[in-house]
Amino acid sequence: MRVQGILGTVLLAFSFSALAGTAEVSWKDVDSYTDIRPADGLKDRYQQKVMDNLTEHFQSLAEKLAEEQKLEITVTDVDLTGRLEPTFGRSTSNFVRIVREIDFPRMEFDYRLVGSAGEVLKEGQANVKNMSFNYDGLASRVRRNDLYFEEEMLTEWFEETLLNQPDE
What we know:
This protein is an alpha+beta fold. It has one domain (22-163). The chain contains 4 helices and 6 strands. It has helices spanning 2-18, 43-62, 139-142, 148-163; strands at 22-27, 70-79, 83-88, 93-98, 106-114, 120-129. The strands form 2 sheets. Strands 1-2-5-6 form a 4-stranded mixed β-sheet, covered by helices on one side. Strand 5 and strand 6 (120-129) form a beta hairpin. The protein is elongated. 17% of the residues are buried.
């Protein structure tokens, strides 16, 4: 009986997600981005982690779209929160990401919202910034999510640009 309840819940969740929109995200010229570098570790691995996490965030936002709508995103620049600054240890230099109020996140991308029949519902270029982020007030939450401010910025853009539009 318990297995049937769990199975029913899983199937119900999939049926609701099938009604949601989707997102397709591509990343253009990543090596030319303003700042998508790790403080330490492998550059390629870090970049892939950031791209995967932001792609996943776009996909979760797209679930709020109407049935069969697709959001197409081509990211052209990323400037992560904070700045990398050198630190010097005993024999090598490393970097640490320092976050100050002037080091706000920024992202540029082209977007296109496509309807179920393939028609373009909305498109444009976005240059989003989160200049009003408050690092001190959210320090404990931020420690759990390295891209908190970037995701917050994208959520705000998504809601203002694609969800909260007056009827034409």
